[in-house]
UniProtKB/TrEMBL annotation:
InterPro entries: 6-hairpin_glycosidase_sf (IPR008928), GH-type_carb-bd (IPR014718), GH92_a_mannosidase_put (IPR005887), GH92_N (IPR041371), Glyco_hydro_92 (IPR012939), PNGase (IPR050883). Residues 246-738 form the Glycosyl hydrolase family domain. Monomer. It comes from Mucilaginibacter defluvii. The keyword Signal applies. One of its GO terms (molecular function) is hydrolase activity. Residues 1-24 form the signal peptide. This is GH92 family glycosyl hydrolase.
Length: 747
């Protein structure tokens, strides 16, 4: 029987290893790079898939083939630049062997999935109908495309744009320049050199014509090459948000000494090796390692450094700024403050300081600390001022290489003068914010009641409960920051506002429920009411998810629920409570509510901390059970291996933390709570030259329960340790077993 079980486990391991085709071909690279698979999650649960992004870690030159998702066997085009994580591209290029026609620009190219290679630093695909091989490598502000055409026949490269505003292409011999207008007024420039000199042309009213330059809207150009010069054509290019001259300077800087395709490929692999191998794990299954290291790769997709030549373009005041310090954009804070920012405080605190310094610059340039900082400015998205939490988290971990007083000034302005309405930017309105300041909650409308307040988003609504709970956490963080810098009066003001979450607690429903402007609870079905995504009252999730949105005061939430036993029972109920309707009915209205276990939604960010809340009860073993189950069920090493919108590191940072065995339940407090490590040994190389080690003796698929623990050789009887313990090079040693030790960690 034992032999049969071993053979069965081996078969399962082999099956998992084959979960994505061409895995051995895909996963070249040294050390742990072989476990990174960019295709994990490339088919979305319901909404957005992950994209197989090719770039250097946190650098702005990003590329992925333009297609619907991994199930799509056709590619529309190849971009010279992905401008934003999910918000646009610039400069399209596509090869063709047929005649240049208007139709050719719009035709999609069929590829073979099994012949496509996507590594974080290298891309290769084969276009079946055209018999063309395409390769790509990224630099920092540069890239190289290599096109291998058939030996005979036409060789054309079609050049277009992705944004309909004024743009330009100019081809002079083998030199090319371009300008594309993004988001209405941002000019993006490119400069490149082809390895061959071709014959340029433009599309004039849909008809190919001779020409070296074209400008206007929706422009199209092309360049054709003869067969005499060989079948391979390379395009080396650079981009700039500063100027055409800077694009050329970026080109000359990175391609100095005739640096070419192989050199960029090698340096790209080295850059990824450095960050991926910063965490080394031993033990676990091959599938678990692939899920883990692929998640770690995702954490370096954004934000991106857009500084070039000690300059950067800022969409916050539409000016070029001089600075020797990196300027970062493309950070969706509602998604990333929970785990992504805290992970960076461990792995690269200096970079986190640069990111927060960028936030300070954005405040100085625009008048507001951003919530979703992207290239064109602060993208009005989601709700809350969670950048405040990230500032506090960094400050309390000793990261202060930015103007802490100016940062506070901006955070305070957000908390007292900015609109609190979802998907809105700018000054507060005349009613809802002032009502919140006076009464401690955002008033909600009754079902069917028409909105009368100007400025409330027509689709996103008031999100009255979600905004109130998020603001309570943000105000707590602002209070703690004020205390740190000696602002006692402000501390007293905002620490009172941190308790505002209690204003919406309903003892009857044991949930946070909406109230009207007269202070009366509104009778709704918290599982389903509130319109699309529950946005009248909650946001993307229902009342059962928002029941737990008090990360800053979990003891206070425990008290509201009647003590630890009832709190634990309520957690149990969360994972077992029925939907009350069919899954398809729920998800038609709540498409973000994915990765469902009972009423728990693994596929959306507000749920990340919830399984760890058992560590506040007398049953920490249930955290260990839940975390292992959730990682195993929802984070597989295949194209469906992300249970919701990954959001460029927002979700996968949860996977990285949880797989290592600990998690920051309350960003802003420099402590971590312990879950159940996937691996027997985790070693983190810290930037200060020390190493943090987490040893989980006998850890396995079965042995997920902590029997005992030691921190730096001393018995640890609590499921908590501090950031100081970690960065000082501590060792956390756990003894693991197949059955829970129900006494460990209850003190």
């Amino acid at each position: 029987m034992i032999k049969k079980i071993k053979r069965y486990v081996s078969a399962l391991t082999l099956l998992s290893a084959c979960s994505l085709p061409g895995l051995a071909q895909q996963n070249s690279g040294e050390g742990n790079l072989k476990y990174v698979d960019t295709r994990i999650g490339n088919v979305g649960a319901l909404l957005e898939p992950t994209r197989p992004t090719v770039q250097l870690p946190n650098q702005m030159m990003r590329m992925f083939p333009i297609r619907k998702d991994y199930l799509d066997d056709q590619i529309s085009s190849f971009p010279l630049l992905i401008v934003s994580h999910r918000m646009g591209e610039a400069f399209s290029i596509k090869p063709t062997t047929g005649a240049v026609t208007a139709k050719a620009f719009n035709e999609r190219m069929t590829y073979d999935h099994d012949l496509e290679i996507i590594r974080p630093w290298y891309y290769k695909t084969y276009l079946i109908d055209q018999d063309i091989t395409v390769e790509y490598v990224p630099g920092i502000k540069t890239g190289i495309y290599k096109f291998e055409f058939p030996a005979k026949g036409e060789k054309n490269l079609l050049l277009g744009t992705y944004n309909g505003d004024a743009s330009a292409w100019n081809i002079n011999g083998n030199e090319i320049t371009g300008m594309e207008t993004y988001h209405g007024d941002i000019k993006i420039y490119t400069y490149g050199i082809f390895s061959q000199t071709g014959t340029p042309g433009i599309l004039n009213n849909g008809i190919p014509a001779a020409g070296t330059s074209v400008n206007g809207k929706n422009i199209k150009a092309f360049i054709s090459f003869n067969n005499a010069a060989g079948s391979t054509v390379e395009l080396k290019y650079a981009v700039s948000f500063v100027s055409a001259e800077q694009a050329k300077a970026n080109f000359e800087t990175e391609f100095k000494g005739d640096r070419g395709f192989d050199q960029l490929k090698q340096s790209g692999e080295q850059a990824w090796s450095k960050v991926i191998n910063q965490i080394d794990v031993k033990g676990g299954t091959e599938a678990q390692k692939r899920s883990f290291y692929s998640a770690l790769y995702r954490c370096y997709e954004r934000p991106v450094n857009i500084s070039e030549g000690n300059k950067y373009y800022s969409g916050y005041d539409k000016k070029i700024h001089e600075s020797k310090r990196a300027f970062y954009v493309d950070d969706w804070t509602w998604d990333t403050y929970l785990a992504h920012h805290p992970l960076r405080t461990i792995l690269d605190p200096a970079q986190e300081e640069d990111i927060l310094n960028s936030y300070v610059n954005m405040y100085q340039q625009s008048g507001w600390v951003p919530t979703f900082p992207v290239l064109f400015g602060d993208h009005a998205c989601m709700n809350g001022f969670h950048s405040t939490v990230s500032f506090l988290d960094a400050y309390n971990k000793g990261l202060r290489n930015y103007d802490t007083k100016v940062a506070y000034e901006g955070m305070r302005k957000n908390a007292t003068q900015a609109t609190m309405m979802p998907w809105m930017n700018g000054p507060k309105g005349p009613f809802l914010e002032d009502f919140y300041y006076a009464n401690g909650y955002i008033p909600a409308l009754h079902p069917g009641e028409k909105e009368t307040i100007p400025g409330v988003h027509g689709f996103e609504k008031r999100q009255a409960v979600a905004v109130t709970l998020g603001a309570s956490y943000d105000d707590w963080a602002l209070a703690q920051y004020a205390k740190n810098i000696g602002k006692t009066a402000d501390y007293n003001l905002f620490i009172k506002r941190a308790d505002n979450y209690k204003k919406l607690w309903s003892d009857k429903d044991m949930l946070f429920m909406p109230k009207d402007d007269k202070g009366k609870f509104i009778n709704i079905d918290p599982k389903f009411d509130g319109g699309m995504g529950g946005r009248d009252y909650y946001d993307e999730n229902n009342g059962w998810t928002y029941q737990w949105q008090v990360q800053h005061d979990v003891p206070g939430l425990v008290s509201l629920m009647g003590g630890k036993e009832k709190f634990e029972a309520r957690l149990d109920q969360l994972f077992r409570e029925g939907l009350g309707r069919s899954k398809y009915e729920l998800q038609a209205k709540f498409p973000d509510f994915t990765g469902i276990v009972g009423q728990f939604s693994m596929g959306n960010e507000p749920s990340f901390h919830i399984p760890y809340l058992y560590n506040f009860t007398d049953a920490p073993w249930k955290t260990q059970k839940r975390i292992r189950f959730l990682l195993d069920v929802w984070y597989k090493d295949n194209i469906f291996g992300i249970p919701g919108d990954e959001d460029g590191g927002g979700m996968t940072a949860f996977v990285v933390f949880s797989s290592m065995g600990f998690y920051p339940v309350t960003p802003g407090k420099p402590v971590y709570t312990i879950g159940s490590p996937m691996f027997e040994n985790v070693t983190v190389d810290l930037p200060n030259g020390k190493k943090f080690r987490l040893i989980a003796n006998n850890a396995s698929v079965e042995n997920k329960y902590i029997q005992s623990a030691k921190l730096n050789g001393k018995a640890l009887n609590t499921p908590w340790f501090t950031h100081a313990d970690l960065v000082s090079g501590g060792t956390l040693e756990l003894e693991m077993g197949p059955k829970p030790n129900k006494q460990w960690g209850v003190q």
